[in-house]
Amino acid sequence: MKQITMIIGVAISSSLLFSCGASKELKAENERLNSVVTANESTIKSLTKDAEDCNKLKAVLSEKIDNINKGLAERGTSMQKIQEKAQNAVTKLEEAGATVTYKDGLVYINYENDFFFSPNSSVIAAKGREALNTIAEVMRDNPGVTATIVGNTDSVVAKGTNDNWSLSTERANAVVRILHNTYNINPARLTAAGRAEYNPKASNTSEEGRKKNRRIEIIINPELSRIWELAK
C-alpha cells in the first residue's frame, strides 16, 4: 500500500512537472507567433501604403500620358493642315520643280537647286525669292511650327568653293535670310543646315541623278516645347 502511494505520488509529480514544462513551451510558442503576426501586420501596412502610392503615381502618369497624346494629336492635326495648305499651292511648287510630302509628323518641301541658284552660286534668283513667300505664308498661318532648311549638293566639288559643305550650308543660310529679311519670319523659328553630298536622293554617276541631289529641302516641324511642358 505504501509503495502504491509512492508510485501515485511520483506519477502526479511527474505529470505536474510535464504540465508545467509544456505550459512554458506553449507560452513561448504563443509569444513567437504573436511576434510573427505583429511583424506581418507591419509588413501588410507598408505594402498597402506602397500600393496606394503606386496607384496615385499611376493615376498621375496616366493623366500626363493622356495630356501628351492630346497634345500630339493636336500637333498632328495642325501638321496635316499645313500639308494640305502646301498641297493647295502644289501646282506652283511643282512648276518650280518642288515636291511636298508628309512623313512622321513632318512636312517636307523639296526644291530642285536650279530653281534657286545658278551653278556654284549661293545667291537666290528672283523666282526663288517669290517661291519662298509660300513657305512664309505657311509659317505665318501656323505660329506653332519651325522650319529647318537643308542644303544638299551632288558629289562634284563646286568651283570657287572650299568644299560642298560650305556651299550647301551657305545656300541654306541664303534661304533663311530671305525668310527673315524679306518675309519677316522670326529667325528663332529657322534653322539652316548643310549636308553637302551626303544625303543623296539618286546616284551621282549620271547628270540626271546629280540634278536630283542638288536641292533645297525645307522641313516644317511642329513646336513640341508645350508637349514637354505637359510631361513635367
UniProtKB/TrEMBL annotation:
This protein's record includes keyword Membrane: yes
Any one GO CC term of the record: membrane
UniProt keywords, alphabetically: Membrane
Organism superkingdom: Bacteria
Location of the OmpA-like domain: 104-224
UniProt-listed InterPro entries: Bact_OuterMem_StrucFunc, OmpA-like, OmpA-like_sf
PROSITE patterns from the UniProt entry: OMPA_2 (PS51123), PROKAR_LIPOPROTEIN (PS51257)
Keyword Membrane among record annotations: yes
PANTHER family, A to Z: LIPOPROTEIN YIAD-RELATED (PTHR30329:SF21), STATOR ELEMENT OF FLAGELLAR MOTOR COMPLEX (PTHR30329)
Record-given protein name: OmpA-like domain-containing protein
